[in-house]
Amino acid sequence: MPPVDKPYAESCDQNREPILAVLAPLFRERHRLLEIGSGTGQHAVYFAAALPHLSWQCSDRAEHLAGIRLWIAEAGLSNLPPPLELDVLKHWPAERFDAIFSANTAHIMGIDAVEAMFAGVGAHLEPGGVFALYGPFSRNGQHTSPSNARFDAWLRAQDPAMGVRDQRWLESLAAAQGLQRIAEHAMPVNNVTLVWERARVAGDRRVVAEHAGGVIRIPA
């Protein structure tokens, strides 16, 4: 088998700092995180180094694991275990986590895979756990910027199954899994980080009030 070159994505270096600014307070009290679609592994190494209290579990489809292992081996971090194989449509780990994160995945997945991702999050997220999803999203059927509209058209030209997903649809998928949105963070280059929380107990409902920084949760 030929040697594997360590993969690299420039976008990971460009967006890692603003993403970390959102994740650091969000995951301050978390212990075990699953990253869905770790890609090159760059984000995992950077975030795990900045959040040493958190076990950052990478995952991706089998063909991406060799490259991720190279980044993990070079980093030598005790909170960065070997990556797991995860195909949202058919193969999930047995473990449960109190945090789940995914970046730039929903728009490259087909609709059935996005639905499967949310179902998997619902099955593997502990009560009180949080799910953070980063990427470009449309709102109420409208793109939030001309660049996102162009990106969506480019994606669909490559593969009709891909495309920028609408936030209202993602909210419906989350609600079906017992997840309530607790924050929405505007990010550079017209991206967004959406954050949901799984109820700590059955029937845990909250009144949600909008404010400039995202969403405030008020006990009902």
UniProtKB/TrEMBL annotation:
Domain of life, per lineage: Bacteria
A Pfam family reported for this protein in Swiss-Prot or TrEMBL: DUF938
Annotated CDD domains: AdoMet_MTases (cd02440)
Protein's name in the database: Uncharacterized protein DUF938
Taxon lineage: Bacteria, Pseudomonadati, Pseudomonadota, Gammaproteobacteria, Chromatiales
Gene3D superfamilies for this protein: Vaccinia Virus protein VP39 (3.40.50.150)
InterPro entries per record: DUF938, SAM-dependent_MTases_sf
